[in-house]
Amino acid sequence: MSGLTIQGGTGASGASGTGAALLRGIDLRIAPGEVVGLSGPSGSGKSTLLHALLGHLSPGTSISAGTVRVHGVDPLTPAGRRLLRGRVVGHMPQDPASALDPARTALHHIREAARRSAGRADLGRLALDAARDAHLDPALLRRRGSELSGGQAQRVILAALLAARPAVVLLDEPTSALDAETTGLVARHVTRLPWLPTVVIASHDPHVLARTGGRVITLRDGVRGSGSPPDAAPSPDARGPATAGARTAPALPTASAPAVDVSGLRIRFGAHRVVEEASFAIPPGGMLALRGRSGSGKTSVGRAIAGLLVPEAGTLDVAGARIPWAGDDRTRSEKPLVIPVLQDSRAALHPGETVRTALVRAGRAAGRQGSTSADPAELLARFGLDPRLLERRPHQLSGGQRQRVAIARAMASAPTLLVCDEVTASLDATAERMVLDALDEALTRTGVAILLITHSPAAADRAHRVLTLDAGRPA
């Protein structure tokens, strides 16, 4: 039997540690070659459903009823997983950077995937064709996984899927870290794959789902809702400020000295310079939005300021003092000044820590600096999260929930500068508005400065100032 079948009122439960149902009463058949969208807010069960099709259930989670079949095979058995993985089923995770070996080049990942569908003589051609179809700049093929932005990592994973040509393609938020133009190109391409696989696309973006041209299945609180496609959303470039409740012409805070001052920043990867002479300052209580196409250098700027990447040149002043670029060279008192919230929320959180432990530990760090931190439950509430999540670990959260926990933990540390890299990209409109409202409130209440790296016009509209990068240069 081909295609995907979930029947018998399939349910998954237990990831919360309380036996709570994550999926309930799911009956679904997807035909060979069909393209289907999965819609629903953050935490609705989209990723859990994809993981059930992969046979990858989180520790403590089990199928409590029903059956799952992929090409007639049960993916939840060890033998079924071995049979399906890679050759039959391909998957793009919500945190694509975590799926790449940081020491291997993009070309290596794509060539390894191509081995599943091509002879040795065809590997190079197939890998290059797949990179082109994924709209991946050939210059990026020699970069290692650790040198790629979130959007670039997404396209490397997509190119690997195109090279492997699996019969079933499962895509979890495949365009979340991409700019509007690239989102449109990728969304069109993945719904018109030449070998006609079964494709399931999970996305919170109605505009992406409307391009599937087929069924859109809605999940809410783990239950299947209407199967009708959502209304096509306006393209990201056409969205007005009301999309996420943006402020109107926010006033830039005035201060005698900036919270952060970046001057003459240049970043190079090998022979390729990715950022050229970037300079900017952010006052206390100010938000600077950093925009630009995927691969324009935005993430590299954020990683450099966060101490995760040493640039070729430039200076960094925080709270009026010069600090080193390398995080390892920063003193114990300097390290808490700049806290990053990166695109890969799974890698950002300790897998063995509960949400409560992570927030309490961050609050203690703030206390050592003379700051006070909010109660963990209050912090979660600010970001629209249920206090019951306090006892969960990262693998027991949805991607959107993990992202908001990462932001809450960063705020608990009471930094001078918060570096937010695409922190709303995996969120639905309601969750995005909650996060942006919470960041707005933090600007006023704590005086934190925020560097907001984003593709979202709605998010950028919240900023006091917008800086656009074009091929690594301020536009």
Automatic annotation (TrEMBL):
Region of interest (Disordered), ranges: 220-255
Superkingdom per UniProt: Bacteria
Pfam family, one: ABC_tran
InterPro entries in the record: AAA+_ATPase, ABC_transporter-like_ATP-bd, ABC_transporter-like_CS, ABC_transpr_LolD-like, P-loop_NTPase
GO molecular function: ATP binding; ATP hydrolysis activity; transmembrane transporter activity
Domain ABC transporter: 4-246, 260-475
Alphabetically ordered keywords of this record: ATP-binding, Nucleotide-binding
GO cellular component annotations of the record: plasma membrane
Low complexity bias: start-end ranges: 226-255
PANTHER family, per the entry: ABC TRANSPORTER RELATED, IMPORT ATP-BINDING PROTEIN
Name used for this protein in its record: Glutathione import ATP-binding protein GsiA
Protein species of origin: Clavibacter michiganensis subsp. michiganensis
